[in-house]
Amino acid sequence: MLRRQFLIAAALFPASAKAALVATPRQTEGPFYPTSLPLDADNDLLQVAGRTERAKGTVAHLFGRILNREERPVAGARVEIWQCDAEGRYHHPADRRGPADPNFQGFGYAVTHDDGVYRFRTIRPVPYPGRTPHIHVAVLSPGRPRFVTQMYVAGEPGNERDGIYRSIRDPEARARVTVPLDPAPEIEPGSLRGQFDIVIDA
Predict the structure, then answer these.
(1) φ, ψ dihedrals at 33, nearest 5°
(2) In the chain, where are the structural domains located?
(3) Helix/strand/coil for 41
(4) In terms of DSSP H, where are the helices of 132-187?
(5) Distance between CA 127 and CA 98 in Å, rounded?
(6) How many Cα atoms sit within 13 Å of 41 on the Cβ side?
(7) CB neighbours of 37 closer than 8 A, spacing ≥ 6?
(8) Which of 17, 41, 45, 87 could make an SS bond with 105 (beta carbons 3.0 to 4.6 A apart)?
(9) Measured between alpha carbons, how far is residue 158 from residues 34, 140, 149, 184 in Å?
């Protein structure tokens, strides 16, 4: 009898079957997506073409994979990020708090290969009035609608006061957008690194 029950269970729930990954939650694009893309819009936001100085702020290497819910990589996806500078200012005409750091791109993009991997060199996000530190992310992939979310820094005290972050009720979904930033001297002295895998529910 026990063997029969085991065989029935094995047939219903094969050991090789994987549970679908929790999808990364969608988040608002916000008001500061660039009105026009910078001429220099590569994946290194710290060095603007034609300028000799590096952007202010703590260097952060952000990398990850674009996946579907079956954990298969999404190739050919354009991954865009945009964020404020080290003083909390965006390169956007609607941000009237003062000029943004001219040595910080503020926007960049990368395209995934067959492994679904992307990578950026940017700064650790900082807070500004009303918002905890975050990075905006958009994913444009073949045959799928544009996907927008935000990445948050694990352990930031402002996270629980941020209305957009708190709007994610499901703990697993919230964990999807909460990323530890750890020291990464092996990549660059004084820098941080974080892995943000994005799971698209499509």
Answers:
(1) -60, 135
(2) 19-200
(3) coil
(4) 163-166, 171-176
(5) 16
(6) 15
(7) 107
(8) 45
(9) 25, 29, 18, 24
Phi/psi region, residue 125 (left: phi>0; alpha: psi -120 to 50; beta: rest), is beta
Reading the block at residue 64, the tokens are: 């990850």
- The percentage of the chain sitting over the pLDDT mark of 90, rounded to a whole number, equals 84
Average pLDDT score over residue span 153-163? 97
Instruction: With H, G, I as helix, E, B as strand and everything else as coil, classify residue 114.
Output: coil
For residue 86, what are its two tokens? 């080290």
CATH for the stretch 19-200: 2.60.130.10
Q: Per DSSP, which regions of the chain are E strands?
A: 59-68, 78-82, 107-111, 117-123, 134-140, 147-153, 178-179, 182-183, 192-195, 198-200
pLDDT grade for 201, boundaries at 50, 70 and 90: confident
pLDDT digit string (tens) for 109-141?
999 999 999 999 999 999 999 999 999 999 999
